[in-house]
Design brief:
This protein has 157 residues and is of the alpha+beta class. The protein contains 5 helices and 5 strands; from the N terminus they run ββαβββαααα. The chain has a 5-stranded mixed β-sheet, with helices on both faces. A hairpin with a 2-residue loop joins strand 1 and strand 2. Helix 2 packs across helix 5 and helix 3 packs across helix 4. The chain is globular, with a radius of gyration of 15 Å.
C-alpha cells in the first residue's frame, strides 16, 4: 500500500510517496530533488535540515512526511526567484556569512522566518532565532551581520 503525501513545495504542488520515507528530509532530498536541506545530526538539534512549513521553521530530519500534507513547504531552493537570489541570500554572500556552507540553508530558513515576522529585528533577536543552529566554521558574527543588513535592505528596496 502506498502512502501519498500532497503539499506545496516551493510554491508548486507535489505528490510524494511516503512509504518507507520516515522523515520529510529524506523525502525532500531523495524523491523531490530538494537537496538544500542537509542531514546533520538526525535528531533535530543542529538546524542544517531546517525548512519552512507554512512560514514556520521546522527540523525536517525529525518531521514525518504526513505532517506536511496540505501545507506549504519552503526549502532554500524556494527563496530565489529563478537565478535572482533573495535579499537575505545576497546579504549572506556579500558578507561572507558562510565558509563550508553546510549550515547555510538552515540558517537562511530560520533567518527568513525571523525577517518575515520581524523585518527589523534587534541583534539580540537574531542571535536568539539562530541560537540552535550550529556552525562549526565560526561564521556566526558574519551571519548575524548579514541578517541585520537584509532587514535594513528590505526598507530600501
Amino acid at each position: 500500500m502506498t502512502a501519498e503525501v500532497r503539499f506545496l513545495l516551493n510554491g508548486r504542488p507535489v505528490v510524494a510517496d511516503a512509504t518507507g520515507e520516515p522523515t520529510l528530509l529524506q523525502m525532500l532530498r531523495e524523491q523531490l530533488g530538494a537537496t538544500g536541506p542537509k542531514y546533520g545530526c538526525g535528531e533535530g538539534l543542529c538546524g542544517a535540515c531546517t525548512v519552512l512549513v507554512d512560514g514556520r521553521p521546522v527540523r525536517s530530519c525529525v518531521t514525518p512526511p504526513a505532517q506536511v500534507a496540505g501545507h506549504r513547504v519552503t526549502t532554500v531552493e524556494g527563496l530565489a526567484d529563478g537565478d535572482r537570489l533573495d535579499a537575505l541570500q545576497r546579504a549572506f554572500a556579500a558578507r561572507g556569512a558562510f565558509q563550508c556552507g553546510f549550515c547555510t540553508p538552515g540558517m537562511l530558513m530560520a533567518a527568513h522566518a525571523l525577517l518575515a515576522a520581524n523585518p527589523r529585528p534587534t541583534r539580540e533577536a537574531i542571535v536568539a532565532a539562530l541560537d540552535h543552529h550550529l556552525c562549526r566554521c565560526g561564521a556566526h558574527q558574519r551571519i548575524v551581520a548579514a541578517v541585520e543588513a537584509a532587514g535594513r535592505d528590505k526598507d530600501n528596496g
